[in-house]
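Please check both lines for our workbook:

___
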Amino acid sequence: MARFSAVICAGVVDSPGRLMLTGSPGSATIISTTMESIVNVIDFGMNPQQSIDAPRMHHQWYPEVVYAEAGLLAPQSQKTLEAMGHTFKAVGAIGADEAIMIDPKTGLLEGANDPRRPAGKAAGY
């Protein structure tokens, strides 16, 4: 994966019954990292920690390779995609995401820290 200057990307999800703030430092993988955690919450009903813990992928058009963490795809699914011409490269970790979800009814805060960068911490007050 190419390395560009470091930046931070933050995202806000405001959907019925949930408000989530998420963000990731880094470079080339920031957008895929934050997008995947948002999709995991909205489309797959995961809580913030589950969404951040889930395996990730990254593709930036060039090189034409899908970088994938272990457990992202079932072996047969990957074989099917490879037969269609997709190339995969296994990587240890993609990105580092942090998130806070706020329950608009109760005000409860639910934080999540990415185990890929264990120096962070989700702590309440």
Notes: The longest strand covers residues 7-15.
